[in-house]
């Protein structure tokens, strides 16, 4: 009987050990989804996928992280530009081709998908990506991804980062984007996105950065953007945006950078922009008219103030010399007239800041008044 008891104890120990190993492994369904994801990609130089072997995808699979309690895949982080030793040994950045397999949508607890700077990944963003209820980060920067932003992207209520910059994404910004109540960082720069900025943008109350430059966005700037009170950085440059600049942008409490250059904006410069907390203001290369508002004061602080290549007229406001600081000022290529004020900030600027105007005179120009 003692032998039988000892044998039973051995079996129990083995069973518990095996059970513990199984429990601590990632689910077979997660492993299968990762392998299908891998099979759609080809990375010949760094060979990061060589580590994707064995039954436990939570252990030493490069770029894969799992939830410590459930052992389900939570993050995929694969960057083509990295200081990781595997890249240093290869003495190069990564290059990957292929496409993002819809199999990634079979990872129900995925919270972060980062697949950046591989240069050669093409195809579309899988439409099923919007079925991942825990997704917080979607970062696909620096590839050749095409197609449109999924129309029902707004279903991702936990999404805080949407970064698809430097790709070939086309089509409109979907109206459902206004439902992304957790979105903090939006970067769609340097794509082929067209159509207007949805009026529902004002519902993105958590948004702090909205970078939409280098696209083909048209229409006007919706005044609803001014309701995004946490916004600090708004970049709409190098698009086809027309119409006036909403004066309400100058009343946004945290906005510090506003880039609207290289568009088709018209009308006058709102005085509110010059008395706000914006300290990087670029309105160059538009069709803005009228006088520069004489609204500067001791609280005015600009790292950059670029109003060049417009149709501005009248004199340079004397209140500009009363600002606390202007690091870079460009008023060139307008229809300004009159004497350039003396003193700061004008005494540290060169002639290029004032050239090609109608009848400006005085230092640093060679034309005396």
What does this structure look like?
The chain is elongated and about 80 Å long. It starts with a helix and ends in an 8-residue tail after the last strand. 35% of the residues are buried. It has 369 residues and is an alpha/beta fold. Helix content is 12%, strand content 24%. It has 4 helices and 24 strands. The N terminus is likely disordered. The longest helix is centred in the first third of the chain and has 23 residues. The strands form 4 sheets. It has a 12-stranded mixed sheet, with no helix packed on it.
Order of helices and strands: HHEEEHEEEEEEEEEEEEEEHEEEEEEE
| Proportion of strand residues | 15-25%
Number of helices: 4
**DSSP E strands, number:** 24
Uncertain regions: pLDDT < 50 for 5+ in a row? 1-22
Major sheet: 12 strands, mixed
Strand-pairing-aware structural class: alpha/beta
| Rounded average pLDDT | 92
Helical content class? 10-25%
Radius of gyration: 28 Å
Give, in spatial order, the strands making up the sheet with the most strands.
2-3-5-7-8-10-12-14-16-18-20-22
Distance between the termini: 116 Å
Quick one: overall form? elongated
């Amino acid at each position: 009987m003692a032998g039988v008891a000892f044998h039973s104890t051995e079996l129990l120990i083995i069973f518990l050990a095996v059970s513990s190993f199984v429990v601590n492994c990632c689910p077979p369904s997660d492993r299968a989804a990762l392998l299908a994801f891998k099979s759609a990609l080809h990375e010949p130089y760094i060979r990061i996928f060589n580590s994707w072997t064995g039954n436990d995808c939570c252990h030493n699979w490069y770029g894969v992280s799992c939830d410590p309690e459930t052992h389900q895949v939570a993050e995929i982080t694969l960057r083509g530009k990295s200081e990781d030793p595997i890249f240093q040994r290869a003495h190069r950045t990564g290059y990957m081709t292929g496409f993002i397999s819809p199999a990634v949508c079979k990872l129900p607890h995925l919270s972060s998908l980062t697949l950046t700077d591989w240069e050669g990944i093409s195809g579309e963003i899988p439409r099923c990506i919007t079925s991942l209820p825990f997704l917080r980060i979607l970062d696909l920067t620096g590839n050749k991804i095409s197609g449109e932003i999924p129309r029902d992207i707004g279903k991702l209520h936990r999404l805080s980062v949407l970064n698809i910059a430097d790709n070939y994404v086309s089509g409109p910004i979907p109206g459902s984007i206004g439902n992304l109540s957790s979105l903090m960082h939006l970067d769609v720069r340097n794509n082929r996105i067209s159509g207007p900025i949805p009026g529902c943008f004002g519902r993105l109350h958590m948004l702090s950065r909205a970078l939409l430059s280098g696209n083909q966005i048209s229409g006007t700037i919706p005044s609803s953007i001014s309701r995004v009170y946490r916004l600090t950085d708004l970049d709409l440059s190098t698009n086809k945006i027309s119409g006036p600049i909403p004066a309400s942008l100058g009343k946004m409490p945290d906005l510090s950078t506003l880039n609207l250059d290289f568009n088709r904006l018209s009308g006058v410069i709102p005085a509110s922009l010059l008395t706000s907390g914006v300290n990087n203001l670029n309105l160059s290369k538009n069709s803005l008219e009228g006088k520069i508002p004489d609204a500067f004061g001791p609280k005015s602080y600009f790292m950059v103030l670029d109003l060049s290549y417009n149709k501005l007229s009248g004199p340079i406001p004397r209140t500009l010399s009363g600002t606390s600081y202007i690091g870079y000022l460009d008023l060139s290529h307008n229809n300004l007239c009159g004497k350039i004020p003396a003193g700061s900030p004008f005494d540290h600027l060169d002639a290029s800041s004032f050239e090609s105007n109608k009848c400006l005179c005085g230092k640093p120009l060679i034309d005396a008044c």
